[in-house]
Design brief:
Helices cover 71% and strands 0% of the residues. It has 402 residues and is mostly helical. Helix 6 runs antiparallel to helix 7 and helix 15 runs antiparallel to helix 17. The longest helix has 40 residues.
């Protein structure tokens, strides 16, 4: 079979399938157009804050370490759109200079140093023990022969000198062992590391005790974990470029230099919602909280660059978020609520019972009580056959529609 003949048959098969399944063909054409229309409406409506170009904060990946990854995830959770790249690039550089990062780094250095010192002391101890064992093996008892016969007793003077020499060697080995055991104790540098950890801990507890105000605790924790106000909400909302030290200073600054805040009326929502949103947008003291929760309430979607990869990801997300077709599901559940296999397997049994009933009803000489059979089985057989008939009718209707 040639190539063009195969192509002709394939196109003919596709045409025949599309003409026989018209509803399916229409759905295949309309569904992508609906998705495109929805995406176009999302891009063009509801985005009242127009930003020419967004500069987002750099977030460390998991390969940079668990601490840096979680710090970047928590400190930049609101995914703020900055006007310049310099402000957005400050977060990652200041994360590595935070008190939390330095404290954990000191703890890791302490543990590594302690493990290294312990390993070195244990190594020296094992070497001394092995040397002691070798020395004991080399010593021979001068009172015994290899064949377990006794030597002649040596002179007392020589014996006392040999015993004293052996005692000096044992004392030297024991002194070396004591020196190695003393090295296992914490050194001065380890004690200094512990003091630094205690100072940091005391500073944290002092901050929590001396500053019971919520904004001060928030600022201290943010400084401890995320650095010196890298991407604070107060800094992002300040109209001047000077950093703000507390919530009180922010409120004072906006009271002295009020900014003109405008709200664009949204015709797609109710008047009550517009009144609430206008209050949140035009009140300076509430705007810094509203900026954080606004993407979750208003559904603001920030799109990535228009590339092939981003389009593919958005298409997959749209496919996952599409709701099920309740009409088709209800029809399918109604048609398939009976188990076809069970009814088909029981159909032969029902046919056999019906034939047996007819046979016993025609002949009364075999001792079978047809009245009993009629009263107990016949109604069940007729009802089961009606259910099977209804099942086949619904199944045929479902096949014709699809």
């Amino acid at each position: 079979m040639g190539f063009f003949l195969q192509l002709k048959l394939l196109l003919w098969k596709n045409y025949v399938i599309r003409t026989r399944r018209k509803v399916h063909c229409v759905v295949e054409l309309v569904w992508p157009l609906c998705l495109f229309t929805l995406l176009m409406l999302i891009r063009t409506k509801g985005l009242f804050q127009k930003v020419h170009q967004c500069h987002f904060e750099d977030k460390p990946m998991p390969s940079a370490g668990q601490l840096l990854f979680y710090q970047g995830l928590i400190c930049a959770f609101n995914n703020t759109c900055h006007a310049s790249a310099d402000i957005a690039d400050r977060s990652y550089s200041t994360i590595q200079t935070t008190d939390l990062f330095l404290m954990i780094h000191d703890a890791k250095s302490f543990s590594k140093y302690a493990v290294a010192k312990n390993q070195e002391a244990i190594k020296k101890f094992t070497q001394s023990a092995m040397a002691l064992a070798e020395e004991i093996k080399k010593q021979k008892n001068p009172l015994l022969k290899t064949d377990l016969e006794y030597h002649h007793r040596p002179p007392p003077n020589n014996l006392s000198l040999e015993i004293s020499a052996q005692m000096k060697r044992l004392d030297a080995l024991h002194g070396e062992l004591e020196t190695n055991m003393a090295e296992l104790a914490p050194s001065l540098e380890i004690i200094n590391l512990w003091e630094r950890l205690n100072i940091n801990y005391d500073n944290i507890t002092a901050i929590l005790k001396d500053n019971p105000i919520i904004d001060e605790i928030f600022l201290r924790l943010h400084t401890f974990m995320c650095g010196n106000k890298t991407n604070m909400t107060l800094d992002m909302l300040s109209h001047n470029q000077l950093p703000l030290n507390s919530l009180q200073s922010y409120l004072e600054s906006i009271s002295k230099h009020p900014a003109e805040l405008h709200y664009e009326y949204d015709t797609e929502i109710s008047k009550e919602c517009n009144a609430i949103y206008e209050k949140l947008e035009t009140t300076p003291s509430l705007k810094f909280i509203w900026r954080i929760v606004k993407p979750y309430i208003r559904g603001k979607i920030i799109f990535s660059p228009n590339t092939t990869v981003v389009k593919r990801v958005l298409k997959r997300l749209s496919d996952k978020l599409v709701g099920p077709n309740l009409a088709s599901l209800s029809k399918e559940a109604e048609a398939l609520k009976y188990d076809a296999y069970i009814y088909l397997s029981s159909l032969h049994e029902l046919t056999y019972i019906k034939e047996l009933y007819n046979l016993q009803n025609s002949s009364h000489d075999d001792g079978f009580d047809s009245n009993t059979l009629h009263s107990s089985i016949y109604d069940s057989v007729i009802k089961a056959q009606e259910q099977i008939k209804n099942y086949y009718e619904k199944l045929q209707k479902f096949k014709k529609k699809n």
